[in-house]
């Protein structure tokens, strides 16, 4: 009895194992079928349609039949036209006898030759004066007046011949032939780049005790201001590079500066979550704006309205009334830090770039996003508006991308600058400059994206080579001087080389195929 119980238990265990195996097999079959169906859905088109085995052969047969019919009709028409167009005049031309008349009648004209002529009647017999010989003269072809049809007439005949039959057969062929895909190729018209003189270092100014992180130019083009990690704001003379005044008030790094073109105000933002409005007549803080929950990295003034827009690490852009200090809008939509922000008169009046690899175009009146540009794959750290055209540029480590406003249509890629790009600047002479974290400056032509120069910035004596990074840059209003703020605590001035010509620095340009890619 014990042995029988053990055998029963063993049989039950085997049955359970077989059931588990069957379940696993069924599951594997289901997984295989689902995966196979997915592949069919992904890679095979028109599954439900029946497949005709010999569609191409039947279509070729129809085409050949149509061509043969058309060829026969054309030959018949050409022969009829030639027979009707041949005109033989009975007065001046000889007529050709038919083969039947030649065989039956054999009527030829005879010519008599008298005297010593080199025409003997038979071999070995010479002619004398009294002998005569006859030579049968066969009819010869005369000059036939034939009018050959023109090319236009032949073309008309070809078109007229068999067009109804061709249409009938073509309809059948269209039904039988499989659908074809039309591949559209876009040919980009690229213009040659404009020649620009190379740039060289003009002056180095030092005065800050930390990294120089921000810069702004005075609208009168007489002075400029810089902000640094040493928590100070310094005002410099643009012509001589001498220090005018130092403003203190921030308790952390100053990350953004903007000078008002309509009021004697300077706005500064920093990592201490503070937005300060400075009166430049008294060099004092007259207003402060509170609302950001983390450090503020960028700011921009509206060109015509008394509105300030700021963005920072809290992933929001805030719109402020500079007179009442009230927060008009809180523009939420980015997921990470807003690195740069720009404002302009026409819509979209606010453009923001974020570390979440997106650029957003905002409607200022509604306080909402009008469109989001997602072409970048890396963090976007800087924006640049063109001073004359209705375009702008976004800079990331993957590419510099050119966009057309107001819809944000992608236009072109600017390639060739490798590294983490912190800043871009655009002059009124269509020179684009990008500064990277490794201290390299790249100069490009705005229209074509041609890189005509690349410079490696040198650190000042006593600084580490790792501090050769460029954090901010801008052109003056004339476009003749470039100012860069760098990690070696210096401010560098750059200008064009006056002695350079098109012969000493020729354009070596080849268009790239990937410029138009998104």
Describe this structure in words.
A hairpin with a 6-residue loop joins β18 (338-343) and β19. α2 runs antiparallel to α5 (163-176). This protein has helices spanning 2-43, 55-85, 99-104, 151-160, 163-176; strands at 86-87, 109-114, 132-137, 145-146, 199-206, 212-217, 223-228, 232-237, 243-248, 254-259, 265-270, 275-279, 284-289, 296-301, 307-312, 316-321, 327-332, 338-343, 350-354, 359-363, 368-373, 380-385, 391-396, 400-404, 409-414, 421-426, 431-436, 440-445, 451-456, 470-475, 481-486, 490-496. Residues 87-119, 129-149 and 157-188 have low confidence and may be disordered. The chain is of the alpha+beta class.
Radius of gyration: 45 Å
Put simply, the count of helices is 5
Mind summarizing the main beta sheet? 4 strands, antiparallel
Q: How many extended strands? A: 32
First and last CA, distance: 81 Å
What strand order characterises the main sheet?
5-32-31-30
Q: Assign the structural class, choosing from mainly alpha, mainly beta, alpha/beta, alpha+beta, or little secondary structure.
A: alpha+beta
Low-confidence stretches: 87-119, 129-149, 157-188
Q: What number is the mean pLDDT?
A: 80
Beta strand %:
35-45%
Helix content: 10-25%
Please tell me what the overall shape is: extended
């Amino acid at each position: 009895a014990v042995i029988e119980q053990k055998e029963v238990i063993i049989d039950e265990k085997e049955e359970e194992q077989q059931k588990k195996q069957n379940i696993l097999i069924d599951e594997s079959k289901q997984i295989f079928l689902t995966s196979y169906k997915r592949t069919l859905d992904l890679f095979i088109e028109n599954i439900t349609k029946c497949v005709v085995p010999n569609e191409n052969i039947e279509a070729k047969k129809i085409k050949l039949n149509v061509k043969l019919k058309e060829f026969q009709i054309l030959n018949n028409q050409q022969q009829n036209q030639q027979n009707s167009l041949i005109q033989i005049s009975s007065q001046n031309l000889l007529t050709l006898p038919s083969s039947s008349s030649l065989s039956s009648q054999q009527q030829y004209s005879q010519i008599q030759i008298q005297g010593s002529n080199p025409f003997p009647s038979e071999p070995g017999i010479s002619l004398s004066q009294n002998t005569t010989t006859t030579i049968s003269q066969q009819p010869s072809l005369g000059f036939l007046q034939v009018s050959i049809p023109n090319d236009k007439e032949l073309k008309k005949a070809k078109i007229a011949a068999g067009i109804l039959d061709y249409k009938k057969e073509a309809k059948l062929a269209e039904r039988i032939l499989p659908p074809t895909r039309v591949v559209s190729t876009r040919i980009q018209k690229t213009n040659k780049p404009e020649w620009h003189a190379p740039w060289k270092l003009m002056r180095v100014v030092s005065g800050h005790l930390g990294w120089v992180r921000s810069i702004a130019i005075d609208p009168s083009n007489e002075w400029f201001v810089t902000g640094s990690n040493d928590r100070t704001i310094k005002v410099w003379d643009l012509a001589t590079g001498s220090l005018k005044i130092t403003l203190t008030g921030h308790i952390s790094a100053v990350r953004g500066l903007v000078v008002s073109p309509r009021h004697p105000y300077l706005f500064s933002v920093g990592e201490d979550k503070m937005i300060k409005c400075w009166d430049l007549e008294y060099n004092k803080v007259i207003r402060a704006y509170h609302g950001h929950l983390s450090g503020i990295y960028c700011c921009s003034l509206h060109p015509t309205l008394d509105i300030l827009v700021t963005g920072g690490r809290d992933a929001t852009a805030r719109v402020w009334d500079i007179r009442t200090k009230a927060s008009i809008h809180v523009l939420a939509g980015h997921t990470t830090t807003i690195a740069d922000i720009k404002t302009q008169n026409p819509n979209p009046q606010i453009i923001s770039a974020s570390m979440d690899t997106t650029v957003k175009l905002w409607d200022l009146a509604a306080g909402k996003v009008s469109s989001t540009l997602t072409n970048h794959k890396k963090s976007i750290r800087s924006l640049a508006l063109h001073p004359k055209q209705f375009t702008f540029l976004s800079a990331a480590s993957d590419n510099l991308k050119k966009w057309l406003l107001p819809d944000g249509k992608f236009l072109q890629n600017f390639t060739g600058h490798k590294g983490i790009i912190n800043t871009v600047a655009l002059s009124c002479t269509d020179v684009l400059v990008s500064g990277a974290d490794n201290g390299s400056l790249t100069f490009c032509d705005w229209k074509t994206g041609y890189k005509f120069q690349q410079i490696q910035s040198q650190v000042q004596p006593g600084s580490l080579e790792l501090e050769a990074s460029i954090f901010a840059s801008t052109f003056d209003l004339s476009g003749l001087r470039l100012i860069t703020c760098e990690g070696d605590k210096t401010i560098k001035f750059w200008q064009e080389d006056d002695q350079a010509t098109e012969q000493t620095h020729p354009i070596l340009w080849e268009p790239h195929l990937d410029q138009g890619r998104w």
